[in-house]
Design a protein that fits this description.
Layout: H1 8-11, H2 20-23, H3 30-33, E1 43-45, H4 49-56, E2 62-64, E3 68-73, H5 79-92, E4 97-102, H6 109-114, E5 123-127, H7 131-149, E6 159-164, H8 172-180, H9 189-207, E7 211-219, E8 228-230, H10 235-239, E9 242-253, E10 260-271, E11 280-286, E12 290-291, H11 297-303
Parallel strand pairs: 3-7, 3-9, 4-5, 4-6, 6-7
Antiparallel strand pairs: 1-2, 7-8, 9-10, 10-11, 11-12
Helix pairs in contact: 7-9
Amino acid sequence: MAKKAASTATTGVQVAPDFGFFRKLKTGDKYLDHNKKRPEYGFIPSGSYAFNAALSGDVYQGFNMNKFFMAVGFFGTGKSLIAKLNFALGLMNLGYYIFWYDTENETTEESLINDFGFIEGQFEIVRMHTVEQLHHSLSTLVTQLEEDKGEGFENKRKCAIVIDSLGGLFTNKGVDDAQKGADSADMTKAKKLKALFTDMTFRCGELGVPAYFTNHKYLKPTSYGNPEEIAGGEGAKYFARVIFDLTTGFEVVSATDKTKLGLILNVNIKKSCFVHVGTKVKMYLDWKTGLNPYYGLHDIAKAAGLLEAYTDNKLPDV
Protein backbone atom coordinates (compact mmCIF):
# COMPACT_ATOMS: atom_id res chain seq x y z
CA MET A 1 0.00 0.00 0.00
CA ALA A 2 1.43 3.39 -1.04
CA LYS A 3 2.32 5.79 1.75
CA LYS A 4 0.49 9.08 1.88
CA ALA A 5 2.82 12.05 1.43
CA ALA A 6 3.14 14.22 4.55
CA SER A 7 2.24 17.89 4.51
CA THR A 8 5.12 20.26 3.77
CA ALA A 9 3.70 22.78 6.24
CA THR A 10 4.06 20.42 9.21
CA THR A 11 7.09 18.31 8.28
CA GLY A 12 9.11 20.35 5.78
CA VAL A 13 9.11 17.29 3.44
CA GLN A 14 8.37 17.88 -0.25
CA VAL A 15 4.83 16.74 -1.08
CA ALA A 16 4.63 14.33 -3.99
CA PRO A 17 2.72 16.00 -6.84
CA ASP A 18 -0.71 14.64 -7.67
CA PHE A 19 -0.95 13.92 -11.41
CA GLY A 20 -4.37 12.26 -11.23
CA PHE A 21 -6.11 15.31 -12.69
CA PHE A 22 -3.87 15.35 -15.76
CA ARG A 23 -4.35 11.67 -16.43
CA LYS A 24 -8.08 12.29 -16.80
CA LEU A 25 -7.69 15.02 -19.42
CA LYS A 26 -8.54 14.22 -23.03
CA THR A 27 -5.76 14.79 -25.57
CA GLY A 28 -7.44 13.80 -28.82
CA ASP A 29 -5.14 10.77 -29.11
CA LYS A 30 -7.68 7.97 -29.12
CA TYR A 31 -5.22 5.36 -27.88
CA LEU A 32 -4.17 7.50 -24.93
CA ASP A 33 -7.71 8.70 -24.17
CA HIS A 34 -9.02 5.12 -24.11
CA ASN A 35 -6.01 3.77 -22.20
CA LYS A 36 -5.11 1.55 -25.13
CA LYS A 37 -1.63 0.51 -26.12
CA ARG A 38 -0.61 1.37 -29.67
CA PRO A 39 -0.09 -1.65 -31.95
CA GLU A 40 3.48 -2.86 -32.13
CA TYR A 41 4.41 -3.60 -35.72
CA GLY A 42 7.00 -6.23 -36.34
CA PHE A 43 9.62 -6.75 -39.01
CA ILE A 44 9.97 -8.80 -42.14
CA PRO A 45 13.38 -10.21 -43.05
CA SER A 46 14.99 -8.53 -46.04
CA GLY A 47 16.41 -11.78 -47.39
CA SER A 48 19.95 -10.97 -46.26
CA TYR A 49 21.13 -11.35 -42.67
CA ALA A 50 23.69 -8.57 -43.17
CA PHE A 51 21.07 -6.24 -44.66
CA ASN A 52 18.72 -7.09 -41.78
CA ALA A 53 21.40 -5.95 -39.35
CA ALA A 54 21.89 -2.70 -41.25
CA LEU A 55 18.16 -1.97 -41.45
CA SER A 56 17.13 -2.91 -37.91
CA GLY A 57 20.17 -3.74 -35.82
CA ASP A 58 19.14 -7.40 -35.69
CA VAL A 59 20.22 -10.08 -38.17
CA TYR A 60 16.79 -11.74 -37.91
CA GLN A 61 14.68 -8.63 -38.47
CA GLY A 62 14.74 -6.23 -41.41
CA PHE A 63 12.05 -3.93 -42.75
CA ASN A 64 9.80 -2.52 -40.03
CA MET A 65 6.15 -2.86 -41.02
CA ASN A 66 5.02 0.71 -40.38
CA LYS A 67 8.02 2.73 -41.50
CA PHE A 68 9.08 4.51 -44.69
CA PHE A 69 12.28 3.22 -46.32
CA MET A 70 14.16 5.05 -49.06
CA ALA A 71 16.71 3.32 -51.29
CA VAL A 72 19.01 5.76 -53.06
CA GLY A 73 21.70 5.14 -55.63
CA PHE A 74 22.87 5.63 -59.17
CA PHE A 75 21.54 3.61 -62.10
CA GLY A 76 21.86 -0.16 -61.87
CA THR A 77 22.42 -0.57 -58.14
CA GLY A 78 19.47 -2.90 -57.52
CA LYS A 79 17.04 -0.45 -55.87
CA SER A 80 14.01 -1.67 -57.81
CA LEU A 81 14.97 -5.34 -57.76
CA ILE A 82 15.24 -5.33 -53.96
CA ALA A 83 11.85 -3.60 -53.84
CA LYS A 84 10.34 -6.41 -55.90
CA LEU A 85 12.03 -9.56 -54.62
CA ASN A 86 12.79 -8.66 -51.03
CA PHE A 87 10.25 -6.05 -49.91
CA ALA A 88 7.04 -6.46 -51.89
CA LEU A 89 7.22 -10.22 -52.42
CA GLY A 90 8.13 -10.81 -48.77
CA LEU A 91 5.08 -8.84 -47.65
CA MET A 92 2.82 -10.56 -50.18
CA ASN A 93 3.82 -13.91 -48.72
CA LEU A 94 2.58 -12.57 -45.36
CA GLY A 95 -0.80 -11.68 -46.85
CA TYR A 96 -0.18 -8.02 -47.69
CA TYR A 97 -1.71 -6.28 -50.70
CA ILE A 98 0.82 -4.17 -52.64
CA PHE A 99 0.16 -0.84 -54.33
CA TRP A 100 3.06 -0.48 -56.76
CA TYR A 101 3.38 3.14 -57.90
CA ASP A 102 5.24 3.19 -61.20
CA THR A 103 6.41 6.69 -62.16
CA GLU A 104 8.70 5.55 -64.99
CA ASN A 105 6.32 3.32 -66.98
CA GLU A 106 8.83 0.57 -66.31
CA THR A 107 6.93 -2.56 -65.33
CA THR A 108 3.87 -4.57 -66.25
CA GLU A 109 1.56 -6.91 -64.39
CA GLU A 110 2.74 -9.85 -66.50
CA SER A 111 6.38 -9.13 -65.71
CA LEU A 112 5.79 -8.88 -61.97
CA ILE A 113 3.94 -12.21 -61.99
CA ASN A 114 6.08 -14.19 -64.44
CA ASP A 115 9.53 -12.75 -63.74
CA PHE A 116 9.37 -11.91 -60.06
CA GLY A 117 6.78 -14.28 -58.60
CA PHE A 118 4.15 -11.71 -57.60
CA ILE A 119 0.84 -13.29 -56.62
CA GLU A 120 -1.89 -12.59 -59.14
CA GLY A 121 -4.76 -10.59 -57.67
CA GLN A 122 -2.68 -9.38 -54.72
CA PHE A 123 -1.23 -6.18 -56.16
CA GLU A 124 -2.04 -3.16 -58.28
CA ILE A 125 0.20 -1.14 -60.58
CA VAL A 126 -0.66 2.54 -60.26
CA ARG A 127 0.96 4.85 -62.81
CA MET A 128 1.61 8.44 -61.77
CA HIS A 129 3.40 11.25 -63.61
CA THR A 130 3.43 14.19 -61.19
CA VAL A 131 4.00 14.69 -57.48
CA GLU A 132 0.54 16.23 -57.16
CA GLN A 133 -1.11 13.17 -58.74
CA LEU A 134 0.82 10.85 -56.45
CA HIS A 135 -0.09 12.82 -53.32
CA HIS A 136 -3.77 12.85 -54.30
CA SER A 137 -3.75 9.10 -55.03
CA LEU A 138 -2.00 8.22 -51.77
CA SER A 139 -4.28 10.49 -49.75
CA THR A 140 -7.36 8.96 -51.37
CA LEU A 141 -6.06 5.45 -50.63
CA VAL A 142 -5.14 6.21 -47.01
CA THR A 143 -8.43 8.04 -46.37
CA GLN A 144 -10.35 4.92 -47.39
CA LEU A 145 -8.20 2.80 -45.08
CA GLU A 146 -8.85 5.25 -42.24
CA GLU A 147 -12.59 5.16 -42.88
CA ASP A 148 -12.55 1.35 -43.00
CA LYS A 149 -10.68 1.25 -39.68
CA GLY A 150 -13.15 3.70 -38.15
CA GLU A 151 -12.87 4.07 -34.39
CA GLY A 152 -11.15 0.72 -34.03
CA PHE A 153 -7.66 0.34 -32.63
CA GLU A 154 -6.33 -2.13 -35.16
CA ASN A 155 -6.15 -1.91 -38.94
CA LYS A 156 -7.11 -5.33 -40.27
CA ARG A 157 -6.39 -4.37 -43.89
CA LYS A 158 -2.77 -5.26 -44.54
CA CYS A 159 -1.24 -3.37 -47.42
CA ALA A 160 2.06 -1.79 -48.39
CA ILE A 161 3.22 0.88 -50.82
CA VAL A 162 6.13 0.93 -53.26
CA ILE A 163 7.04 4.08 -55.18
CA ASP A 164 9.47 3.48 -58.03
CA SER A 165 10.75 6.11 -58.24
CA LEU A 166 10.59 9.59 -56.70
CA GLY A 167 13.15 10.77 -59.22
CA GLY A 168 10.78 9.89 -62.06
CA LEU A 169 8.10 12.31 -60.91
CA PHE A 170 7.35 15.59 -62.66
CA THR A 171 5.17 18.47 -61.38
CA ASN A 172 2.11 20.31 -62.64
CA LYS A 173 4.28 23.38 -63.13
CA GLY A 174 6.74 21.36 -65.16
CA VAL A 175 3.96 20.05 -67.38
CA ASP A 176 2.56 23.57 -67.80
CA ASP A 177 6.00 24.99 -68.62
CA ALA A 178 6.59 22.29 -71.20
CA GLN A 179 3.28 23.04 -72.90
CA LYS A 180 4.13 26.74 -72.97
CA GLY A 181 7.67 26.17 -74.16
CA ALA A 182 9.07 27.83 -71.03
CA ASP A 183 12.51 26.76 -69.83
CA SER A 184 12.47 28.28 -66.34
CA ALA A 185 13.70 26.12 -63.47
CA ASP A 186 10.99 24.24 -61.57
CA MET A 187 11.41 25.06 -57.89
CA THR A 188 8.12 23.46 -56.78
CA LYS A 189 9.01 19.74 -56.78
CA ALA A 190 10.90 19.74 -53.47
CA LYS A 191 8.11 21.70 -51.79
CA LYS A 192 5.42 19.37 -53.14
CA LEU A 193 7.34 16.25 -52.10
CA LYS A 194 7.81 17.65 -48.60
CA ALA A 195 4.06 18.22 -48.33
CA LEU A 196 3.41 14.66 -49.50
CA PHE A 197 5.69 13.10 -46.92
CA THR A 198 4.60 15.42 -44.13
CA ASP A 199 1.06 14.19 -44.72
CA MET A 200 1.66 10.51 -45.44
CA THR A 201 4.35 9.52 -42.92
CA PHE A 202 2.14 9.91 -39.85
CA ARG A 203 -1.05 8.57 -41.40
CA CYS A 204 0.57 5.46 -42.86
CA GLY A 205 2.41 4.88 -39.59
CA GLU A 206 -0.86 4.93 -37.65
CA LEU A 207 -2.36 2.39 -40.05
CA GLY A 208 0.69 0.13 -40.10
CA VAL A 209 1.29 0.66 -43.81
CA PRO A 210 4.99 0.27 -44.70
CA ALA A 211 6.42 2.01 -47.75
CA TYR A 212 9.55 1.53 -49.83
CA PHE A 213 10.52 4.15 -52.35
CA THR A 214 13.48 4.41 -54.65
CA ASN A 215 15.25 7.64 -55.49
CA HIS A 216 18.04 8.76 -57.77
CA LYS A 217 21.35 10.31 -56.85
CA TYR A 218 23.11 12.86 -59.01
CA LEU A 219 26.49 14.55 -59.03
CA LYS A 220 26.55 18.20 -58.03
CA PRO A 221 28.71 20.54 -60.13
CA THR A 222 30.71 21.72 -57.15
CA SER A 223 34.31 21.61 -56.03
CA TYR A 224 33.58 21.34 -52.31
CA GLY A 225 31.46 19.28 -49.93
CA ASN A 226 29.73 16.03 -50.84
CA PRO A 227 29.48 15.83 -54.65
CA GLU A 228 26.53 13.42 -54.46
CA GLU A 229 22.99 14.64 -53.83
CA ILE A 230 19.66 12.84 -53.42
CA ALA A 231 17.02 14.03 -55.87
CA GLY A 232 13.83 15.71 -54.72
CA GLY A 233 14.92 18.10 -51.99
CA GLU A 234 14.80 17.69 -48.23
CA GLY A 235 11.25 16.38 -47.67
CA ALA A 236 11.90 12.71 -48.36
CA LYS A 237 15.18 12.84 -46.42
CA TYR A 238 13.47 14.24 -43.34
CA PHE A 239 10.48 11.92 -43.28
CA ALA A 240 11.92 8.59 -44.41
CA ARG A 241 12.69 6.63 -41.24
CA VAL A 242 15.50 4.68 -42.89
CA ILE A 243 17.60 5.79 -45.86
CA PHE A 244 20.14 3.40 -47.32
CA ASP A 245 22.59 4.20 -50.10
CA LEU A 246 23.43 1.43 -52.58
CA THR A 247 26.67 1.43 -54.56
CA THR A 248 28.10 -1.29 -56.75
CA GLY A 249 31.08 -3.36 -55.74
CA PHE A 250 31.67 -5.73 -58.64
CA GLU A 251 29.68 -7.98 -60.94
CA VAL A 252 29.56 -11.71 -60.34
CA VAL A 253 29.88 -13.72 -63.56
CA SER A 254 29.72 -17.41 -64.35
CA ALA A 255 33.15 -19.06 -64.56
CA THR A 256 31.95 -21.25 -67.43
CA ASP A 257 30.05 -19.04 -69.86
CA LYS A 258 30.69 -15.56 -68.38
CA THR A 259 26.96 -15.01 -67.81
CA LYS A 260 26.25 -12.13 -65.43
CA LEU A 261 24.84 -13.72 -62.29
CA GLY A 262 24.53 -10.82 -59.89
CA LEU A 263 26.14 -7.91 -58.17
CA ILE A 264 28.04 -7.26 -54.95
CA LEU A 265 26.48 -4.19 -53.32
CA ASN A 266 27.77 -1.85 -50.67
CA VAL A 267 25.10 -0.57 -48.28
CA ASN A 268 25.64 2.65 -46.36
CA ILE A 269 22.96 3.73 -43.85
CA LYS A 270 22.40 7.46 -44.29
CA LYS A 271 19.55 7.76 -41.79
CA SER A 272 18.00 5.35 -39.32
CA CYS A 273 15.92 5.11 -36.18
CA PHE A 274 17.39 1.66 -35.47
CA VAL A 275 21.17 1.76 -36.05
CA HIS A 276 24.00 4.28 -36.15
CA VAL A 277 24.26 6.44 -39.25
CA GLY A 278 27.23 5.26 -41.29
CA THR A 279 26.61 1.55 -40.66
CA LYS A 280 27.95 -0.34 -43.67
CA VAL A 281 27.48 -3.89 -44.91
CA LYS A 282 27.98 -5.83 -48.12
CA MET A 283 25.35 -7.90 -49.91
CA TYR A 284 25.15 -10.19 -52.91
CA LEU A 285 22.18 -9.48 -55.16
CA ASP A 286 21.38 -12.39 -57.48
CA TRP A 287 19.60 -11.18 -60.60
CA LYS A 288 17.10 -14.04 -60.44
CA THR A 289 16.55 -14.82 -56.77
CA GLY A 290 17.32 -11.54 -55.01
CA LEU A 291 19.51 -11.11 -51.96
CA ASN A 292 21.73 -13.95 -50.80
CA PRO A 293 21.01 -14.65 -47.10
CA TYR A 294 24.58 -15.23 -45.94
CA TYR A 295 26.85 -12.94 -47.90
CA GLY A 296 28.30 -10.19 -45.71
CA LEU A 297 27.92 -12.04 -42.40
CA HIS A 298 31.64 -12.76 -42.22
CA ASP A 299 32.45 -9.03 -42.18
CA ILE A 300 29.90 -8.41 -39.41
CA ALA A 301 31.29 -11.25 -37.28
CA LYS A 302 34.85 -10.04 -37.85
CA ALA A 303 33.95 -6.46 -36.89
CA ALA A 304 32.28 -7.75 -33.71
CA GLY A 305 35.44 -9.64 -32.73
CA LEU A 306 33.75 -13.02 -33.03
CA LEU A 307 36.44 -14.48 -35.29
CA GLU A 308 39.54 -13.43 -33.35
CA ALA A 309 40.01 -16.84 -31.71
CA TYR A 310 39.21 -18.82 -34.82
CA THR A 311 41.43 -19.96 -37.69
CA ASP A 312 40.99 -22.66 -40.28
CA ASN A 313 43.53 -24.80 -38.42
CA LYS A 314 42.31 -24.26 -34.88
CA LEU A 315 38.77 -24.89 -33.82
CA PRO A 316 37.43 -23.03 -30.78
CA ASP A 317 37.26 -24.95 -27.51
CA VAL A 318 34.06 -26.92 -27.06
